[in-house]
Every structure is written in C-alpha cells, then in structure tokens.
C-alpha cells in the first residue's frame, strides 16, 4: 500500500469507538504520511488509551551507518521475517490498533498522480493492525501491517492494510505470533465491502476526501 491514510472523525468519536479513556489534549491529524503524526490505540493495565505519535520506525541500512546518515522511516510491516521486526511481532506489548477511515493509493500517470481513497462501506472508523514502541531515535512510533491486496485495490497496489473487525481486536492485541501470521496471510477483506473514491486532487495536494472544495470532482465506485 502507499504511505498515506486519514481518519475523519473527532477525537471523542474515535475514543468512543475504541472504548478508550477520555482522550488527552491531542488533535486528529488532517492526514498521516510517514514521519507525520497519527493516532494509535494501545492497551495498558486493562485500559485502552489513545495516543498520538509519528508513523514510521527508524530504518538503518549498512550504507547509512557507514556514511553516518541519519535513519530513515519505515511504516509498513510486509515481511514478518525481517530482523527489524522479529522481536516486535512476537511480543504483544508492542501491538496497537491504528484508527483509519481512508487509505490512499496514487492513480494516473507519473508526474500527474491523483489521490484514490479506499474505505470500508458504512464504517466511519476501522482498526488497522499495528505495532508501536519507544525508540531512541524518534521516541514513540508506530507501523502498520500489510497483506496481499484484494481485487479492488490490486490495480493500484499489490498490498493493503490488515483491517480488523471489532471481534478481532482482543486477539490482535494479546494473541501469539501464530495469530499475527494468520492475520497477515489470510484472505483480504472482500472487494464488495470496500468503496473507492476517485479524485482530481494531486497526490501531494493534502486534500482529504471529505474536503467540500473537492467533493464535486469525486465519484464513488461501489462494487
């Protein structure tokens, strides 16, 4: 999947949806790209807490270390066997839920890409299976797990978020590594349960799918 998503509900609505404690003084980001702030739900001492932190774990390469280059960011967990994830995916304390309403993929020809937004039908907020931890490089950060895309998403990208039903939250947050593997390699959400919103908004525009100024240029395809 691409590295752009948005949640278009108030902080109180998001907290209520996940049964989180009264939210602190944080705001809902207008959109989230790697390195910018996003929201996550964590469980601590039996309580659900809503947190704001940047998207993307620190990413080091041999060349970066050799030349003293600062770490980059990696916000998508596609390969559970990668050494950088081996401790995170096993330990439930590093798991979280990422509230999203839309995830985006670029559409069109290079140099003129626009935003195509995907959402779950009749679901104002859904949970994306995520990981989070405190890092020495960036402080608290999060990343989201991806899976093979369904037929609706595949023309845009061969990966999509691992989306969880409410009945699966507990298993994701507390399950064994076998559960994590099963979530990533199961069948994706059926295409008929998703909508795609085509827009004329340039990929770097920062315009959200709920922006009234661009709504007239959008069409919804319901499969």
TrEMBL record:
It comes from the Bacteria. One of its GO terms (biological process) is protein-DNA covalent cross-linking repair. GO terms for molecular function: single-stranded DNA binding. Gene3D superfamilies: SOS response associated peptidase-like. InterPro entries: SRAP, SRAP-like. This is DUF159 family protein. It comes from Rhizobium leguminosarum. The lineage of its organism: Bacteria, Pseudomonadati, Pseudomonadota, Alphaproteobacteria, Hyphomicrobiales.
